[in-house]
Write a structure and sequence with these properties.
Layout (H helix, E strand, L loop, with lengths): L4 H13 L4 H8 L3 E6 L2 E6 L2 H10 L1 H12 L4 E7 L7 E4 L57 H12 L9 E5 L5 H15 L5 E5 H13 L3 H9 L3 E5 L8 H16 L3 E6 L11 H7 L3 E5 L4 H15 L5 H10 L4 H17 L6 H15 L5 H12 L3 H5 L5 H17 L4 H7 L5 H17 L1 H18 L1
Parallel strand pairs: 2-3, 5-8, 5-9, 6-7, 7-8
Antiparallel strand pairs: 1-2, 3-4
Helix pairs in contact: 1-4, 5-6, 7-8, 11-12, 11-13, 12-14, 13-14, 15-17, 17-19, 18-19, 19-20
Bound molecules: adenosine-5'-diphosphate and magnesium ion.
Length: about 475
């Protein structure tokens, strides 16, 4: 009797059914369709790349065994993978069995009962088996101020929180520099999911913590328990994935957990301090996963958003700060939100200690101490002082309205250096030069660059000043 692909595959399924749990059988084998049988090669269609990799990782031995039972020792299996777009554009991956990949007894999927699951978060007050979310209720969407800097990330976050695992934002990847609100946002998502759906097991974990837990699990021979814990999660939030760079084994483990959860319609949310394309030391297959969902970035909030953040913070702390101080802080601190909050806290602390009101004078004083750290060594003050000395002009004149030619040039040079050597925005630079407009700063920067090209002596002067900046920085 000539065998058909259907009869061969049906027989394989009978065999497989006896070897794996019900759940696994339904998840991983029922969706497979036999496509063709060509001599000793059976081609099966799998719904996604995930599927293909999962089968290869977990069931390679089983598949090999049943194919060889059916087709003899030369029996081969090929996969036809439906490409992710959902269109029926098939792309065949030829995989010849026996396969090189060796997998030790992998019992991940023996999901029914009897699993050892121990909470890997060692919290003294925690029951060993309890589900621990690691969420901080202080992070919410309510107190996450919206601005151009975060609009996409924030609204994607809300969408995900309302329908975890269901939107196409899966995984949701948030990236942005230090202190720009990644942790706040991903935690806010977690909190919202928890509130809305009580049965949804949300887990927030930093990549660092995940790595430690994984290493401990290896040491203690408890990988299975570690994995089982993570596989129960419905909404997994992994903060700062850049920390996985270069940690191959941890990435491997995360990859499996990721695949498993994603395949089962669970939501994954990640953050990173840089764009996925700049994540060095991360395996390509992991990176390609990140691109499946949505990647959204966080930028430094603009001036108005910073004002709103300060005011919101004051409101929640029940503190009053005069408008001019709010404005001054928002102008002066344009590195990141964490620093902005730090300055605010210092200011409040100073006022409390000295039993004074918060006013512009105190704000300036407080900022002086802190800004020094913020700006490393080269700050606006230093640049103004250095340029003033170089051109023999007072700092006051640099900030003043004077339109005398020498002063205008020195002022432009100072602005240019501020642009080069500090993190201040154009707006903030303008502010430090007597409240000038940001377009004045753009003009200054442009004029200085032009002049350096045409006037050699001027170019040398700038180089000399730059040397001073660099010397100060080391
Ligand atoms: P990251 O994880 O990116 O380093 P965080 O989430 O820890 O940054 O944010 C630093 C601080 O700034 C936190 O206290 C956070 O609440 C606050 N913050 C950041 N962005 C906003 C925002 N848009 N609105 C209100 N607070 C913010
Ligand atoms: Mg963070």
């Amino acid at each position: 009797m000539v065998k058909s692909e259907t009869s061969v595959w049906d027989d394989c399924l009978d065999f497989i059914r006896g070897q794996v749990g019900d759940q696994s059988f339904r998840t991983w084998f029922e969706p497979i369709r036999p496509l063709s049988l060509n001599q000793e090669t059976l081609t099966i269609q799998v719904p996604s790349q995930f599927f293909y990799e999962y089968l290869e990782e977990h069931y390679v031995h089983l598949l090999r065994q049943c194919i060889q039972n059916q087709l003899g020792p030369g029996g081969k299996l090929e996969y036809s993978v439906i490409v992710d777009s959902g269109s029926m554009q098939n792309q065949a991956y030829s995989v010849t069995l026996p396969n090189q990949r060796q997998h030790k007894n992998n019992s991940w999927d023996n999901a029914n009962g009897k699993q050892e699951v121990v909470n890997p978060f060692e919290m003294p007050s925690l029951d060993k088996n309890s589900r621990y979310s690691n969420l901080n209720p202080n992070y919410s969407f309510d107190n996450y101020i919206e601005g151009d800097c975060n609009r996409l990330a924030r609204s994607a976050g809300i969408a995900v929180a309302e329908k975890p695992g269901i939107t196409s934002f899966n995984p949701l990847m948030i990236y942005g520099g230090v202190g720009l609100g990644k942790t706040h946002l991903v935690q806010a998502i977690g909190n919202k999911v928890s509130e809305a759906t009580s049965g949804n097991f949300v887990l927030y974990v930093s990549s660092e913590k995940f790595t430690t837990q994984f290493t401990d699990a290896i040491k203690n021979n408890s990988i299975q328990s570690f994995t089982n814990y993570y596989l129960q999660v419905d909404t997994l939030i992994i903060d700062d994935v850049q920390f996985f760079s270069g940690k191959e084994k941890t990435q491997e483990m995360f990859f499996h957990i990721f695949n498993h959860l994603h395949q089962n319609g669970k939501q994954i949310i990640m953050s990173s301090d840089r764009a996925p394309r700049d994540l060095k030391g991360l395996q390509d297959r992991l990176l390609s996963r990140f691109k499946w969902g949505l990647t959204a970035d966080l930028q430094m909030p603009d001036f108005e958003t910073r004002m709103a953040i300060i005011m919101r913070k004051m409101q929640s702390d029940g503190i009053y700060i005069p408008d001019d101080v709010v404005e001054y802080l928002a102008y002066s601190v344009d590195t990141n939100v964490r620093e902005l909050e730090g300055v605010l806290i210092s200011l409040i602390a100073h006022a409390t200690l000295n039993k004074t009101d918060i006013n512009l004078e105190l704000a300036k004083q407080t900022l002086k101490n802190i800004v020094h750290d913020i700006e490393s060594e080269v700050g606006v003050d230093y640049i103004q002082k250095t340029v003033g000395e170089y051109f023999q002009i007072s700092v006051e004149d640099l900030k003043d309205k004077t339109r005398k030619k020498e002063i205008v040039i020195a002022r432009q040079v100072a602005m240019y250096l501020c642009k080069e050597y500090t993190n201040h925005s154009l707006k903030s630079i303008g502010y430090h030069f007597g409240g000038r407009d940001h377009s004045t700063v753009i003009h200054a920067v442009q004029s200085v660059s032009d002049m350096m090209d045409i006037d050699q002596k001027f170019g040398q002067a700038i180089e000399e000043l730059k040397k001073k900046m660099k010397m100060k920085m080391v």
